Amino acid sequence: MLKLASRLTVLPPLALCAIVGAGPALALGSDGAGRRTPPLEVAVMTMERQQVPRTVRLPGRAVAYEQVDIRPRVDGVIEAISYVPGKTLAVGDVLFQLDDASYVATVASDEADLAKAEARLPVSQAAYDRAEKLAGKGYTAAEVEEARATLAEAKATLDAAKAALEYARTQLSWTTIRSPIEGVADVQEVSVGDLVTSGQSDALTTVTRLDPIYIDLSETSSRILSFRSQLASGVLKPNDTIDAALTLENGEVYQGSGTLVTLTSTVSTTTGTVTVRFRFDNPDRVILPGMFLRGELTLGTVEAFLVPQRAAERDNTGRLSAFVVGEDGAAKKITFTDIGSTDSAWIVNTGIEPGARLILNGLKTLREGMAVAPVAATLDADGLVVEESDAPPDDGTASADDEADD
Which residues contact 218 (CB under 8 A, 6 or more apart)? Predict the structure, then answer.
């Protein structure tokens, strides 16, 4: 069997002492002096409470203020189309004209029937008056009763003739189809010569009022409950009015603010949202029904801290954590819960002490108790850390006296 032999190298005593003696020097550096790890330089921001507008951004859709599908109320053939699609219509403007010949004839016939009824009534009235006056003197009770029935029938015939004529005239008026609202009509779905019928399912056209216009924004029921809780506790101080600002599909901000109309009293079972309806003026017809938009609502103000989102991390439970500079100059981890956000900051009203120095960077490196060297800083518009000492130099030049002092 082969045996593996190990070889031990024995160093001379002087060489061993040299290596052992060099150990501390290697640990302390080339000069032999001890070096401690310097504190980690971090950017900090002093936290102070401030009045923060409570703003929410919600998705929404435009809904017509008024919209009517135009359908015929009588049967007839389209004789004329009297409107221009896209042109503003007033209430009562003519849209379509149906062939009215048969309806004109019906009116004439009913007018004749009315004339007959009106002529018969005085005759029946006179016959009844005579029979009643001569009752028992040449007229029997049966004859008087018959005269009374004839008079009643004449009156009923007159009333029926009046009603028939009124209905005939109404049907005749329906052959002229008018716009019931102010708005804009779509392209017609029929042509001249088409036969249309009363009660048909297909609309001839649709008239839509575009100014003003409704905007339906959607908010989750859970956030609605949160806002109500904040109002009840006094955390959220409401504005006198709730207005909305809109951003269009192309990112353009719509000029004009909306007025709150209503908050629906039910929650959608499919989306879990509540609809908040606003009314906007839309004189230039920029917003069209069905258009997707985003609304920004300012509900009120809260007294809170603004914690930059880049300075905090969220755990699986939804709580946020960040580091502040402790009294001993070391990093201290704190946890808190936000009540919303604005721009790129969390809105926090508990869990942070006024005057705390919040660490803005180095979250991945920091550990609880790590020594830090705080440097006062702020965040620019892009959310980047800028040291407060990095202010731009003055444009002015030194005075002659200053130069002389130098």
Answer: 58, 59, 60, 271, 273, 274, 275, 276
Distance, CA of 363 to CA of 334 (rounded, Å): 12
> What is the predicted pLDDT for the residue at 381?
64
- Cα dihedral across residues 131, 136, 138, 140: positive or negative: positive
Q: Cα–Cα distance between 393 and 384 in angstroms, integer?
A: 20
pLDDT at res. 134:
81
CATH architecture observed for domain 53-65+209-301: Beta Barrel (2.40)
| β-bridge pairing 76-81 and 195-196 | antiparallel
Q: Which residue has the tokens 């599908």?
A: 69
The CA-based dihedral angle spanning residues 331, 336, 341, 343, taken in that order and rounded to the nearest 10 degrees: 0
Report, at the CATH architecture level, how domain 44-52+304-387 is classified.
Answer: Beta Barrel (2.40)
Q: Give the per-residue pLDDT at 215.
A: 96
Euclidean distance between CA atoms 92 and 121, whole angstroms: 39
| Gap between the Cα atoms of 188 and 311, Å rounded | 59
Distance CA 311, CA 377 (A): 13
Question: By the 8 A CB rule, do 325 and 251 touch?
Answer: no
pLDDT at 340: 86
End-to-end CA gap in the chain: 91
The most distant pair of C-alpha atoms in the chain lies apart, rounded to whole Å, by: 171
- Per-residue pLDDT at 386: 66
H or E stretch covering 177: strand 176-178
Residues ≥6 apart with Cβ < 8 Å to 252 = none
pLDDT at 393 over 60: no
Please state the separation of Cα 336 from the chain's center in Å.
Answer: 30
Query: Taking a C-beta distance cutoff of 8 angstroms, is the pair 89, 185 a contact?
Result: yes
Give yes or no for a contact between 97 and 83, defined as CB atoms under 8 angstroms apart. Answer: no
The DSSP bridge partners found for residue 277 are 216, 262
| Contact present, 114 and 161 (Cβ < 8 Å) | yes
What is the rounded CA–CA span in Å between residue 203 and residue 195? Answer: 13
How many Å apart are CA 190 and CA 177, to the nearest integer?
Answer: 13
Rounded CA-CA distance 151/56 in Å is 76
For residue 167, the tally of other CB atoms under 10 A from its CB is 13
pLDDT of residue 284: 92
Cβ pair 127, 79 in contact under 8 A:
no
Q: What is the pLDDT of residues 241-260, one digit of tens each?
A: 888 899 999 999 999 888 89
